[in-house]
Amino acid sequence: MSPEEGPPPYEVLAALAASLRGELADAVGALAETRAELAQARKRIAELEARLKQNPRNSSQPPSSEGLGKPAPKPRSLRKKTGRRPGGQDGHKGTTLMQVARPGREIRHEPGACRACGADLAGRPVTGVDRRQVFDLPPVKVMVTEHQLIERECSCGQRTKAPAPHDADAPACYGPRIAAIIVYLYAGQFLSKQRTAQALADLFGTPPSSGTVAALTARAAGKLDEFLHLVQKEIAASDVAGFDETGFRAEGRLHWVHCARTGKYTLLMIHPRRGKEAIEAMGVLPSFAGVAVHDAWAPYDLYPGADHQLCCAHALRELQAVSDATPEGQWCWATQAAEALTAMQDLAREAISQGRDAVDPVALAVQVHSLRSATLIGASQTATRSGALMKKHHALACRLLDRQDDYLRFTRDLRAPPDNNEAVMRSVVRVHAVCVSRSHLAPRRQCLTGGLRMSGAGKGRARQKTAAKRAVRQLGRSHNCPGR
Fold first, then answer.
1. Contact criterion met (CB below 8 Å) for 191 and 482
2. How confident is the model at residue 292 (pLDDT cuts 50, 70, 90)?
């Protein structure tokens, strides 16, 4: 525009201003949209980072999920420093190999000649005996017993043959002791069928086939139905029992192994469902009136006849996950809650070890206040529940508040353990015949294990057994036989 033309008309300036206002409004809208997308992206990144940080120490993932490429663990534990030295503590009852009063065999070793002058010591007075006892097995070999079933002919012409003993049901078969060793190695020590057969061949020179291992285990399991009913009744009548469940895939479908246990008995059951239908089929919790120790899985709460102790180990792992998601150096409510929960477990253990029937009330009140203060702050900080991760943390804080009495029941009733770790089954899960047989091995360890009962739930028993057998192979691979 030249100086002679003068300023632009008002209409032009007004139109230009209106255009700029529109562009500014569009830019502001785009900026707001970008900020919203950025906030959403940050939430998603936080959720993904939290998922990547999940491990067996802050979630319910099994240790095997980390694989061989897992990073070196950080020096972090759910247990806090106590100031005590590592190793056995004062008052701890140790165990060691002790000499017996009456050994099976005694061998005398004479010194021969005097080590000073070389004189013969035969017939000289005995001044001392240093006893050294060696515990070992005698040479073991398989003994073959032939049962000859005599047949005689009566004067009437009838021929009668003697009946065979119950353990000689075939022209050539394994006896009860070898069968017991096979079942023990396969079901009790989680060897595979092939390795069980190989162990028998290496130790005793008797190489059974893999099919024989499976058949003997199934035969042993089939004789334990009465035992399973006994275990079911004993657990249902107990004062304290733990309940848990774990999933696995069989025949391409998800199944669940349910566990009910006391300090002496354990009952395992395979079922295609996880919730109330399976709990009813197991037949323990519906008639149970003691303290039920379990995680926060909702179907367990459908049985008000029992008192409930929620598993603190599960809660500590969840709290650890919240702490892991908090920026380093920043105070976290979950850390305080975990420390208070761990301190209360220490108070309960101390009371039990000292023979007291109650926890120190003053120390307990301090830790209860610390736990509740932390969870109240956690619930407040996550109240907006913006994003899946914050919703998860908010649900944890609210659960710790709402179910505080159930989480802390172990501080009022010292019979109840604070966690359900003994019922975690990834370390004991084998299916059907394996579990049933394992159940009968434990009485020698004062832990009678009631084995696995198949529950149809609309499916044929044969199909369930087939699924169980396939799951045995699958679990053996996924858990490396005895691994968790």
1. no
2. very high
With b for 16 or more beta-carbon neighbours within 10 A and e for fewer, the 319-354 pattern comes to bbbbbbbeeeeeebbbbbbbbbbbbbbebbeebeee
- Identify the sign of the CA torsion 476, 477, 480, 484: negative
Residue 199 clears pLDDT 60, i.e. is over it: yes
- CA distance linking residue 209 with residue 213, whole number of Å: 7
φ/ψ region of 458 (left if φ > 0, alpha if ψ in -120 to 50, else beta) reads left
Q: Using CA atoms, how far apart are residues 127 and 129, in angstroms rounded to an integer?
A: 7
Q: How confident is the model at residue 364 (pLDDT cuts 50, 70, 90)?
A: very high
Location of structure tokens 């039990």: 352
**Segments in 205-263 forming alpha helices (H):** 210-222, 225-236
Report how far residue 363's alpha carbon sits from residue 365's, in angstroms, rounded to the nearest whole number: 6
Residue type for position 455: S
Q: How far apart are CA 411 and CA 121, in angstroms?
A: 69
Per-residue pLDDT at 277 exceeds 70: yes
**Dist CA 268 CA 450 (whole Å):** 7
DSSP 115: T
Average pLDDT over residues 160-174: 93
Q: How many residues does the chain have?
A: 484
Give phi and psi for 255, each to the nearest 5.
-125, 170
Q: How far apart are CA 211 and CA 197, in angstroms?
A: 10
Strand partners, 268: 259, 452
Which residue, among 283, 225, 223, 229, has the nearest Cα to 258 in the 3D structure? 283
Query: Residue 379: is it exposed, middle or buried by C-beta count within 10 angstroms (0-12/13-18/19+)?
Result: buried
Torsion from C-alpha of 16, 20, 21, 24, nearest 10 degrees: 180
Residue indicated by tokens 């976290």 = 332
